[in-house]
Known about the structure:
Shape: globular
CATH architecture: Beta Barrel
Strand content: 25-35%
Strand order of the largest sheet: 3-2-1-8-4-5-6-7
Oligomer: single chain
Distance between the termini: 52 Å
Helix content: 25-40%
Structural class: alpha+beta
CATH topology: L,D-transpeptidase catalytic domain-like
Number of helices: 4
Amino acid sequence: MTMIWRLFALTLCFAVGSASAAEKADLVRVTKSESRLYLLRGGKAFASFHVAFGASPDGHKQKQGDERTPEGRYVLDAKNAHSAFYRSIHISYPNSHDRESAKVRADDPGGAVMVHGQKNGFGWASVVTQRFNWTDGCIALSNSDMDQVWNAVDVGTPIEIDP
């Protein structure tokens, strides 16, 4: 009898895991103060992941090289399966407001801000690297978490990055 219950539980776990793996996000929300990325559908989070940011995470990205992650509403506008970091998804930073603000300060707003996994060849190191902020302003996940985000997010999905 115990074996039947184990098989039932295993089947149930597999079915639940498969259903959530197929779910698509209609919004990605990142909360910097929590170091979390949330996948949402219909206003409800269906997955959550620990993330690392730029080495100077406090505040909105102002210029190239400040190692900050932007804050605000953007779009995930391109996917790259062959980037220098495991599976990157481009964030549409800078937007027109970011460019204008940088122009007033005579700064380059920067760009190439991504959601990505670990540096290629260093996926094994995520148990260490995900414990501190190490990117140049990107949002980094473990490679296994990046696989889930990659599968749940289509190009054109909005992303909100909150302080």
